[in-house]
Design goal:
3 strands, cytoplasm, 9% strand, alpha+beta, Signal_recog_particle_SRP19, 145 residues
């Protein structure tokens, strides 16, 4: 009487980690949910940005737009959302060897989000030099919402 298919889908969900924008936000304290050092964190990252950088490096990513971080008092749309990322394959090995832990994914996302075109353009576009190496990434995650 065990539902093997149901168990398997449960286990495969366990291979997905959840990342809330709060984890990477340098405006938050550890108590408010930040999980990486403040000097590595980003100003108000969005779930879409996290999704973009993780999808670009090859992760299997799900964006859950209406999930709220439980400790987030601000109900604003920009603070909403959570990203599920498949960290492990069914055999328990990392999907991407360079990202063995959820921490490594968070640090990568926080490091990469500031380089997103949407971010660098807001700065007045002076630092185009950052953008040269990113030719192959166009069109990723740009589907119409």
């Amino acid at each position: 009487g065990v539902d093997i298919a149901g168990l398997n889908s449960l286990f495969s969900l366990l291979r997905f980690i959840c990342i809330y924008p709060a984890y990477l936000n340098n405006k938050k304290t550890i108590a408010e949910g930040r999980r990486i050092p403040i000097d590595k964190a980003v100003e108000n990252p969005t779930s879409t940005e996290i999704q973009d950088v993780c999808a670009a490096v090859g992760f299997n990513v799900l964006l859950e737009k209406n999930k709220m971080y439980p400790r987030e008092w601000n109900r604003d749309v920009q603070y909403r959302g959570r990203v599920r990322i498949q960290l492990k394959q069914d055999d328990g090995n990392p999907c991407l060897p360079q990202f063995p832990t959820r921490k490594s994914v968070m640090l990568y996302a926080a490091e990469t989000i500031p380089k997103l075109k949407t971010r660098t353009q807001k700065m007045g576009g002076s630092d185009q030099s950052l953008q040269q190496g990113e030719g192959g990434k166009k069109g990723k995650g740009k589907k119409k919402k």
